[in-house]
Description:
Helix content: 10-25%
CATH class of the largest domain: Mainly Beta
Mean pLDDT: 80
Subcellular location: Cell membrane
Domain C2: 51-173, 188-320
Protein name: Synaptotagmin-like protein 2
Shape: elongated
Keywords: Cell membrane, Exocytosis, Membrane, Repeat
GO molecular function, one term: neurexin family protein binding
CATH superfamily of the largest domain: C2 domain
Oligomer: single chain
Number of strands: 19
CATH architecture of the largest domain: Sandwich
Strand content: 35-45%
Largest sheet: 5 strands, mixed
Strand order of the largest sheet: 1-14-11-10-19
Number of helices: 5
Amino acid sequence: ESDTASEISFQFNKHKKTPSVGSHSSDMASVSSVSGSVLSVYSGDFGSVDAQGTVEFALDYDEKNREFQVHVSQCKDLAVVDEKKGRSDPYVKTYLLPDKARMGKRKTSVKKRTVNPIYNEVLRYKIEKMVLLIQKLNLSVWHNDPLGRNSFLGEIEVDLASWDWSNRKLNWYPLKPRSLSAVNGVDHRGVMNLSIKYVPPGSLGKMCPKNPPSGEVHIWVKDVKDLLQLRPSGVDSFVKCYVLPDTSKKSYQKTRVIKRDTNPVFNHTIVYDGFHTEDLKDACVELTVWDHEKLTNHFLGGIRLGLGTGLSYGISVDWMDSTQEEVAFWQEMMSAANEWIEGLLPLRSL
C-alpha cells in the first residue's frame, strides 16, 4: 500500500447490498469488538455497592527484560456484593492509560467468598521505560459474577511519571469510588476537522465539463487535534477511509503518514463516485486514525458518518451506529447539495 495525498476517485458499488452480516466489517468494525471489551474499565454494575477497603501492591520496572511489573499482593475489607450470602468474589484488573486498547488489560485470578483476598500475583507489561513514563496505571477491584454483571469495588490511579521507582516495597492504598470526571476524560481521543459534500447526478448542468453522470461524495480530511501520545516523540498517524458496506480494496483509501505529531495536518481529499441519492441513507463513511509502526498499526480513534439507523439496505449492521453529532453532520450534507459542510467531530473508540 502506498501513501498518497492526491485526490482519488473510484466507483462506489451500490449494488453490493446483500453480503452476509459477517462481512460487514472494516478495520473499525473489527477493532470495535476488541475495543468493546478492552475499553470496559468501568463496565459492570456500579450502583450496587460503595467502594471501600484497601489494596496492597508494588510497582517495579525490569530494565533487563524491559518489563513493567505490578505485584498485586492482597486486598482488605472490600465491600460485600451479595448481602444475602455475605460474599464477594473479587479480582484485580489493571490498564495503562490513556490508550487502554494498545496495551490491553491484565487481571488476577478470582478469589471466591472473601472480602480479604490474597493474590500474590505479578501482572506484566512489555513496554519501553520512556513510553511507560507518559502513562497512568489504573488498578481496579471487581466482584466476578457468573452472568457477567461484574460489580465495581474500588480503584486507584497512579501517575507513573511521578512515581518513585526506588520504592519496590509493598504498600497499602485506599480504594476510591469511580470518578465520573476521570471516566469522561480518559477516553478523549482527539478531534477531526473535516468537510464533506454531496454532488447529485447531473446537478452541475450540461455545460459543466465535470458534471458527474452519477452522484459523488467528497471527503476533505483537513487535520486532527489532540491525538493520544503513545510515545514521547508523538505519533506517526494516518487516516483510513471506507464507504460501508463496501469493504473491498476499491472502497479503501488512506492519507499519507504524518510523523511525530499529535496535531497532524493531512489536507487530503477523497472522491467516491457512483452514488445515487437513495444510497446516502444506507451507506456510512468510516474514517479511522491509526498510529503507524513497522509491524502493526494501532487504532487511535474514528468517526462514522451516516444516519445511524442500525440498518443498511434492510440488513441489521453494527457499524451503522453514528452518534447524534455524526448523524446531524451527514443530514446537513444530504440537505445541502453541492455545498461543503464543515465540522469538528470527536474521535471515539467505538
